[in-house]
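Pinned message: reference record for Oligosaccharide flippase family protein
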Amino acid sequence: MLKKALMLVSGNAFGSALLLLRNLIVARLISPEDYGIAATFAISMSLVEMLSYLGLNQMIVVDKDGDDEHMQNALQGFQLLRGIFSSTVLFLIAVPYARFLDIEHVAWAYQVIALIPLISGLQHYDMHRLKRHLKFGPSVIAQAVPPLVSVLALWPLALIFDDYRIMLVALLVQAVALVALSHLTAERRYRLQFDIAIMRSATKFGWPLLLNGILLFGVFNGERLIVGRELGMGQLAIFSMAMTLTLTPTLVLAGACQSLFLPQLSGALDKPGSFRWLGVASIEAGLAIGLLLILGVVLLGGPLVHLLLGDKYLPILNILVPIAVVQAIRVMKSGSSTVALAKKMSGNSAVSNLFRVISLPVSWVALIQTGEVMMVIYIAMAAEVLGYLVSVYLVVKRTELTLSPLIVPSVVAALTCIAALVSDWNYPPEPHLGPHLQHGSMWLVVACGLTSLALMSNLRGYLIRTLLRRER
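Predicted structure (tokens):
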């Protein structure tokens, strides 16, 4: 199991690192204003994805009939219908979306991006089905190779374009590569079927995930839209890059943890004791990911930004630690969402994300009145704290998990977040490592974070058992 976990983490990390590398290369090649426009491409795709996301790739893992070939074919047919719908919506909203951001001259680019959901709709679902049997190879390949192809395409694209069009074509290349690899790594023949009963069942399973997708759009992109509209593409580039740098590692590790824990939790549904133990370990894993992000940003954030992006993106250092805290609290909810999903309680994530979405109008008004991005960040932070508390409460109540092992690690994790913010107020990240390491408040953050990690007894026990099982 440890070997599979390492494969998941390394595969996801490799793919996400390549996507981050692509973004960094593009940011180096073009102006911040053009990078701000490029950042809106991802927002537009997220906008249509949220309108049709039903978690079909998760359903084929957790449903008792997920191995049935007819069901897989029907889900693939449903996925194609989703792609057609999403492409149509994206094409229709391209001009209004560009007008909203005051960049109407690039509306044509959003119409071109409308091809991506259609391409993605042709994806083969074998790579998802095989996760039921803890065979993660095809999905890891499909996650890692397309970003590599996208990165390799940047060199010829840079010879042709010198603006946001580099990112536009790179996204198309990645979508085509993903679909191609999903077919090349499949064991079954690709077929499409359209079964109304399975579509109805998938919709019943996925409507809470659809709702959560709408909420996640607000979580990941709401503040970006607000900043882009009110402060312009240059400020959006700074804000979006800070979000990307802190979001990428959390998505990698949270995705790997879900892929690792979800099949095991589903397999332990008829063993209440094992399920409760694994559930607490899953929640502690989410906490651990958030803490690792904070420690990494506090220790190395400033020098990494300077190394990767150069002087033109140094304003990121003014907001990097607070945004990292927001992302850390957000990812701390991922463990409880995985536990709830194993019980087919897919609405748990939606409820926990609702607070962040509700906070968006408040953030918008605050930004208009103050012109300060930090107000947006602090409001998002408060919303994520409420979301975390509610997510843990709901999963404990609905799945009968034991809350007591989580209390002390959660409290110390909260102290770590507070210490990081206090340290940032007094000593913001610096582009050079030497002076930064001399601040005592930074080492208090490290001490709190390591203490919280040490207190996660179920996660520690899970890792030890996995190691012992591997040695046998």
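Pinned by admin. Summary line: The mean pLDDT is 84.
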